[in-house]
Structures are given as structure tokens and as C-alpha cells.
Amino acid sequence: MTAKLIDGKAIAAAKRLNMKTRVSQLRSEGLLPGLAVVLVGENPASKSYVKGKIRDCEEVGIHSELIRLPESVSEKELLDKISLLNQRDEIHGILVQLPLPKQISEEKVIQAISPEKDVDGFHPVNLGRMMTNQDCFVPCTPAGIMEMLKAINVSVTGKHAVIVGRSHIVGKPASQLFLNHSATVTICHSKTNPLSNYTKQADILVVAVGHSDLIHAEDIKPGAVVIDVGMNRNSEGKLVGDVAFDEVCQKAGFITPVPGGVGPMTRVMLLENTLKAAEKIVKERACDGE
Ligand SMILES: Nc1nc(=O)c2c([nH]1)NC[C@@H]1CN(c3ccc(C(=O)N[C@@H](CCC(=O)O)C(=O)O)cc3)C=[N+]21
């Protein structure tokens, strides 16, 4: 069998097209959705991701502001900046690009963002709301994975989803999201032994570790849906995932490429969350009878 490719890039592009209509609708109601992106320091990867996010906003008509701070910025200065953004009505979403320099506590920074503007979905309030199946901002990568599955008509209900990786931004929230969608969920991590005992049982396998060639053909169930969240550079400097793509391709039912899979979906879900934040304001206005 040869797996069908899940074209995250194309799915994301189609979603952006739809979003233009939602932006027009918001604008006709007198609201321009706005996203603030805070970039601290000069990390080239962070700069390039942030540039991509700004470009995405431009494409769909979301107002974006890039706030750049020096590597040496103090925690207090960053927290003050966030507090100003929290207060501004034209800003509906706030994203502070991670990682942050050592002198700054990421935990404190995330908690300083108003949960209503936390379009990354990293604030404990949003994570807690997700855990109790309430309306919330879902972190962009897990949300993007769900959107991909929807786009290829794969139902999650009753499936065995195996998540490899337990990070706060991907593995853990992805596990919770699959559980909320009534999957049977197994979470694997660096102490899971042997890993392949679990991955072989997956109907849907999500790999978010950051080690290339972690998953081989022998580690998966024939026909499985394989979602590769990994982003690694190989010896030739090329971007590769955590899954040995060429061989797993021969056995999986569906597989995401790297690049062009999860990454573009992560980006588009940031726009989705920003629109959701803005649409909520319009709805609240309507309820207030303004
Ligand atoms: N507050 C915060 N929120 C984030 O969402 C966040 C973050 N910090 N810090 C860094 C990570 C990483 N991340 C990526 C998103 C899309 C691609 C992406 O679009 N990748 C392309 C390839 C890009 C390339 O070629 O380098 C692809 O997979 O096709 C990559 C990486 C978001 N992150």
C-alpha cells in the first residue's frame, strides 16, 4: 500500500480563502481583527516564523502588529508590554513567540496574556477549559491536526490515537483534544519502553518528539493515519520530520509530509483563533444591544 498524502499546505490555503469572507463580514460590522506578535531577540528561526505569521495575516486581511524587543529586555518590560496589549481594543489576539531569553519566565509571560486574547491557547485558563470540554482557544498545532483529519474525512471517535511526546504545546493538548473527540488515547514519552508496542496499536499516530527517524515502517499498524509534527534538520540541512517518511509511506493509510503538513496548519489555526477572538467581541456587542 502507498499512503495518501495529507496536503496541509493546500488545506491551509483553502481555509485562508474562507477566512477572507469572515474578515469582510467582521469589517462590515465595523471591526477589523487585529493580532499582535511579540518577538524578543534575533533568533533566525523565530524571525522567519514570525514573518510567516505576519504574511498570513496580510493575505486574509487581519491587521497585524509586530512588536520587537531586544534580547536583553527585562521580564518586567515584557510584562508591561503585554499589559498594554491586553488593554487595547484593536488587538484581539496576542502571540509571544517562544522560546524567550533565559532572564524571562515563559510561564509568567503566558499567564500575563489575557485568556480572551490568548490565541496560542497556552494560558492555564484555556488549557483548563479544554480539559473540561468548554469553549476555549485550542493550541494551534493540535487544532491544526484535528482540522487535517476533518479535511480527509477521518473520524476520531472510537479510534485508538497514540500520541508520542508530552510537551505543553503539542503532545499534552493534542492528547486532551483527541480525548474530547472520543478517541481512546495513549500518551507515550521518552520513558515509554518499548515505544513500538504502543505505536503499532495506533489507528492514528501523532509524533511530536523532535528526533528524526524515530518511527519506522515496523512501528506502525498497516493503514494507520500518521501525523508527523517533528521538525528536524538532516545532515544535508533539509527539513525532516520524526517519521522515516519513505518507508512509513509504504505502510500507512495517510501520512503528513514535512514540510507542507502540520506546519502550515499550525499557522492557519493562529488566524482561526484570532478570528474567533474578534468574532466573539462582535457577538458580545450584539448581546449588549450596542
Ligand atoms: N508562541 C508561539 N507559538 C507558536 O505557534 C510557535 C512558537 N511560539 N515558537 C515556535 C513554534 C514553531 N512553530 C511553527 C509553525 C509553523 C511552521 C511551518 O509553517 N513550517 C513549514 C516549513 C517552514 C520552513 O521551511 O522552515 C512547514 O512545515 O511546511 C513551523 C514552525 C510555531 N511555533
Automatic annotation (TrEMBL):
Keywords: Amino-acid biosynthesis, Histidine biosynthesis, Hydrolase, Methionine biosynthesis, Multifunctional enzyme, NADP, One-carbon metabolism, Oxidoreductase, Purine biosynthesis
Residues holding NADP(+): 165-167
Domain of life from the UniProt record: Bacteria
InterPro entries: Aminoacid_DH-like_N_sf, NAD(P)-bd_dom_sf, THF_DH/CycHdrlase, THF_DH/CycHdrlase_cat_dom, THF_DH/CycHdrlase_NAD-bd_dom
Positions of the Tetrahydrofolate dehydrogenase/cyclohydrolase NAD(P)-binding domain: 139-280
Residue ranges constituting the Tetrahydrofolate dehydrogenase/cyclohydrolase catalytic domain according to the UniProt record: 6-120
Family: Belongs to the tetrahydrofolate dehydrogenase/cyclohydrolase family.
Assembly behavior: Homodimer.
Primary role: Catalyzes the oxidation of 5,10-methylenetetrahydrofolate to 5,10-methenyltetrahydrofolate and then the hydrolysis of 5,10-methenyltetrahydrofolate to 10-formyltetrahydrofolate.
Protein name per Swiss-Prot or TrEMBL: Bifunctional protein FolD
Organism: Sporolactobacillus shoreae
Lineage summary: Bacteria, Bacillati, Bacillota, Bacilli, Bacillales
